[in-house]
Design a protein that fits this description.
The protein is mainly alpha-helical. 65% of the residues lie in helices and 0% in strands. It contains four helices and no strands. The chain has helices at 11-18, 24-40, 45-55, 60-74. The longest helix is centred in the middle third of the chain and has 17 residues, at 24-40.
Length: 79
């Protein structure tokens, strides 16, 4: 016997149903802080590259994506 159940809900509804916490404010604060540090130059490019290499499973392709993102945020990509 095979039973199939389709559930049509948003990710927010699924999170609430499963009792998981809403981490949106934490995520937003973290991203805001990271952007502020990048914009003010508080972290060297080498440090950022090291962090991104640890975070990115896509290797060199992912690293290029992050580098372009941060260059655009800091205005370095407009040269």
């Amino acid at each position: 016997m095979k039973i199939t159940v389709d559930v049509d809900c948003t990710p927010e509804e699924a999170r609430r149903f499963m009792g998981l916490p809403d981490l949106t404010p934490v995520h937003d604060a973290y991203i805001s802080q990271m952007l502020d540090v990048v914009k003010t130059g508080g972290v060297s490019r080498d440090t950022l590259e090291g962090m991104m290499k640890n975070w990115m499973p896509m290797g060199e392709t992912g690293m290029k994506l992050w580098t372009q993102l941060f260059d655009n945020v800091t205005g370095q990509g407009k040269r």
